[in-house]
Specification:
The complex is a heterodimer. Chain A is an alpha+beta fold. Helix content of chain A is 37%, strand content 29%. Chain A has a six-stranded antiparallel β-barrel. Chain B is mainly α. Chain B contains seven helices and no strands. Chain B is globular, with a radius of gyration of 15 Å. Chain B starts with a helix and ends with a helix. Classes of the chains: A alpha+beta, B mainly alpha. The interface between A and B is large, with 38 and 42 residues.
């Protein structure tokens, strides 16, 4: 009796294990076995399970919503980065396309020239209001010397004023120190195209009776020994005849957009235009 | 009486959470930590009476009734766990949190293995232990993880030290 009292928990557990085994045996072997106590418990718990399931689904929906928001934010950030990268790429491609077009034009112009010519990139511009110059990335190392002519596909740019080992400074035709021997294409009237202090360009030393009207094209004469003959300088936009004197002057609009120039050709005195501008 | 009420409430709440809430969580898998085995370990640790052995059996029976598994399987597992924990704490001092968590992990594994063994004995389990084993270990780890919180809830049902010594 003392043994039973001391080991009552273990004996009870042993009995319960036997009962469990018996119940398991019955319920596994006879599948349609219906447990009345289990059914009662199931009925009792069912309402609570409904409530807890509803709560679980609610938590699930909140969690899914949160995950969706996080995903959407990540997607949004990713797409923003992608758009920025594509915009950068688009910009780069646009620049490449424009550069390609400019270089193709320069190459076509180069093929119309006979003689030595070097392509160059504009790398700097004179920021001062008095001097109209720009700097190119070719110097004495590339056979670029002082006095060489600088051209663009659209026409005359200026001439080399100073050359260092790797770069050169170009005096533009609009600079007041510049002077180019020129002729009017239509009437063959001769004069000197010079820059003004105001950044404009004038054809000076025209005979008073020379036939010059607005719209006339002005070309290089080739007589200065710097510029090849027949290169377009610009177009006459105004003619001023004084009441007295032997000469007249014309205002010339340069054919090259000098403020947007990016590539030029440097040519020496031996160069000639094979095919003059139409 | 208060102890029985606390244990009953925690067990009922745990059973509901185990059968509903865990399955609704959208984690990509459905964890089902055995909440009731933590209660059973608590009984084995702190309630050494015939009533607590019957309570362990009742917990298993309740689980069988709700889970749809053959009646008696979980009841058997719970009684096995209760006996093992009872015998363990009679020989070893198990009263710090880490040892309790380890005990819950082992108890969860033991219960699952004993349920499957009985099931296999009566032809209810095909003996494919590979995938089952990983599931057992994951659920045991989850049960161990929630054990400290459940033990804190069940603290009100502990027998005072003085009475336990008698």
């Amino acid at each position: 009796m003392e043994f039973v009292r001391r080991n009552r928990i273990l004996l009870t557990a042993g009995g319960l294990l036997l009962i469990s085994l018996l119940l398991s045996s019955v319920s596994i072997r006879s599948q349609p076995y219906r447990d009345p106590i289990g059914q009662l418990l199931l009925d009792a718990l069912a309402p609570f399970q409904v409530v807890f399931s509803w709560m679980g689904r609610g938590v699930g929906r909140v969690w899914s919503g949160y995950i969706d928001v996080v995903d959407a934010r990540q997607d949004n950030q990713h797409l923003h980065e992608q758009v920025a990268a594509l915009q950068g790429e688009l910009l780069r491609l646009g620049e490449l396309e424009r550069e390609n077009a400019r270089l193709a034009e320069l190459l076509a112009f180069r093929s119309r020239l006979q003689g030595v010519a070097y392509g160059a990139h504009v790398i700097a511009r004179d920021p001062g209001p008095l001097a109209m110059t720009l700097t190119i990335d070719r110097g004495e190392r590339d056979q670029v010397r002082r006095g060489m002519a600088v051209l663009a596909p659209q026409g005359v740019v200026g001439q080399i004023a100073e050359a260092s080992h790797t770069a050169a400074r170009v005096v533009l035709l609009t600079d007041h120190n510049s002077g180019i021997d020129a002729i009017v294409q239509r009437s063959r009237a001769r004069g000197i195209v010079q820059g003004g202090m105001d950044g404009s360009c004038y054809m000076n030393y025209l005979n008073r009776d020379a036939d010059v009207v607005a719209g006339d094209r002005v070309l290089t004469s080739g007589l200065d020994g710097i510029f090849p003959k027949g290169v377009l300088i610009g177009e006459v936009v105004d003619v001023s005849r004084r009441h007295r004197g032997l000469l007249q002057a014309a205002v010339v609009q340069p054919s090259v957009a000098l403020d947007r120039l990016e590539e030029v050709l440097v040519v020496d005195a031996t160069a000639q235009v094979v095919e003059p501008p139409a | 009486m208060r102890a029985a009420a606390v244990i009953g409430l925690v067990a009922g709440f745990g059973l509901l959470v185990q059968t509903t809430l865990f399955h609704a969580l959208p984690f990509g898998f459905h964890p089902s930590p055995d909440v009731l085995v933590v209660v059973c370990v608590f009984l084995g640790l702190h309630r050494h009476t015939v009533g607590s052995a019957l309570g362990a059996f009742a917990l298993g029976y309740l689980q069988d009734a709700v889970s749809g598994s053959p009646i008696g399987l979980n009841a058997f597992g719970m009684v096995v766990v209760y006996v093992l924990v009872y015998l363990t704490c009679r020989r070893l001092w198990v009263d710090n949190l880490v040892s309790k968590v380890v005990l819950v992990f082992l108890a969860s594994c033991v219960k699952a293995v004993s349920v499957l063994t009985v099931s296999a004995l009566f032809g209810g389990f095909d003996g494919n232990w590979g995938p089952t084993l990983s599931s057992i270990l994951i659920n045991a780890a989850l049960a161990a993880a929630i054990a400290p919180a459940l033990f804190a809830l069940l603290a009100g049902a502990r027998v005072p030290e003085g009475r336990a010594a008698r």
